[in-house]
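Minutes, methods subgroup
Present: GH (chair), OT, SY

1. OT presented the first of two proteins processed in the latest run. Sequence and C-alpha cells recorded below as shown on screen.
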Amino acid sequence: MLSIIWLASAHSDLHKILTYIAYESPPAARRMKKLLEDSVVHARREFPIST
C-alpha cells in the first residue's frame, strides 16, 4: 500500500483548523483529528489505486 503524501499547505491548514477548534474545546479538536485521520486511512483502503 502506498503512503499518503500531504502537501505542506494541507498540513498547515489542518493545524490551523485544529488550533481554532482547540481554542474552544481541546477534546473536540482531538476527536476531529482522530476522525480525519481515520477517514484518510479508510479512503486509502477503499480506493488504493487512486493514491
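2. SY then presented the second protein from the same run.
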Amino acid sequence: MNNYTKESVHIPVLLETCVEQMNPMVGERYLDLTAGYGGHAQVFLSKTQSPQTAVLVDRDENAIQTLEPFKEKGARLMHQDFLAAAKLLVEEGQKFDLILADLGVSSPQLDIAERGFSFNKNGPLDMRMDPSAEKTAASIVNHSSKKYLIGILTKFGEEKRGFANRIADAIVAERPKKQIAT
C-alpha cells in the first residue's frame, strides 16, 4: 500500500547542490540509483529533457508507485536495490552521463508511522526499505542472538561496543516477558 501523500512530499536536502555540481545538460542520460519519491528526478529530467533515456531505481515499492508518472514519460523504473540494478545495467552495457545515489531514509519513510522508521510516531517495528522483504526489525530484535544484535548496534547504530552490549542485554532480557513490537 502506498501511504505517500502530498503532505509527505520529500524535498531532497541537497538538491540545489547536486544540480549545481552535476550540471545536467539537455540530452544527457540520467541514472538515479535511489530515486525515492522523484525529488531529484523531477529537476534533473526537466534539465536533460530526455526522460526516455532515464533509469530510476528504488527498492521501496511505495516509491516506485509514486514514480509512475516518469514511466509514462518514457523513464525506466527498476524495483531493486541499487547494487543489483547497477550490476544489471552494466551487464546490459548501459552508459550514463549523470549518476546519482542519495543514500539514507527519506521524509516519507520517517513520517509514515507504519513504515517503522519514525522516532516521532508510534508504529510497528518494521524498518524495511523494501516492504516486500521478509524480515522486519521486530523479527530481528525478537529472534536474533545477543552477538548479532551487538553487531547491528555497533555497525549501523554507530553505538560504542559497551553501550551496544547493554542495549542487547536489555533486549534479550525483555524478550521472554513480551515480544518487542515498537
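Chair's summary of item 2: The radius of gyration is 19 Å.
Next meeting: continue with the remaining queue.
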